[in-house]
Amino acid sequence: MKIICIGRNYVDHIEELANERPKDPVVFIKPDSAILPKEQDFYIPEFSNDVHHEVEVLVKITKVGKHIDKKFAHKYYDEVGLGIDFTARDLQKTLKEKGLPWEKAKGFDGAALIGKWLPKTNFANIDDLNFSLYKNEKLVQQGNTSLMLWKIDELIAYVSTFFMLKKGDVIFTGTPAGVAKVSANDYLSGKLEEEEMFGVKIK
Ligand code: ZN
After folding, report:
1. 123 CA from centroid of ligand 1 (Å)
2. Longest CA pairwise span in the chain (Å)
3. How confident is the model at residue 175 (pLDDT cuts 50, 70, 90)?
């Protein structure tokens, strides 16, 4: 499986990093080795002093698809989730400045936390989901999928023009504002609407 991530999909986050608003979705891939094993702590890698949390809504692809039309995109996922796109911001900054790919800053071991999955039928409207991240029980990130520049079905259509989607692929749909550094002993937990989706200790 592959993990497809969308960058700069919320205006408030684009502004906090002083990034340009993209004309098309910003897309990158994490390898499957980036998945943080269930119930394991997240270890800050030695090569970074500035690993950020980015809480994101996830969808899991249920069948093969290529050049998927936006109006059929909803047929390609049954479950939604919540996760963290851990980002070595210091390394990413250096790579960006040199015009180099970000993979090392985003695709390292453990950089993809995938929480539990819920049937999408639990929710009335996938494009109106509240989600949030708590650090040591304090609210640090809060978003709603209605604020995405490109909505979930548009993302699936767009991404599938470049990458064939396969059963089990996961899409990280972008983070809202509030990204910040994690430190040893922090505890992060995420909520989708009222449901606790994950909890992770930082080491
Ligand atoms: Zn992200």
Report:
1. 23
2. 45
3. very high
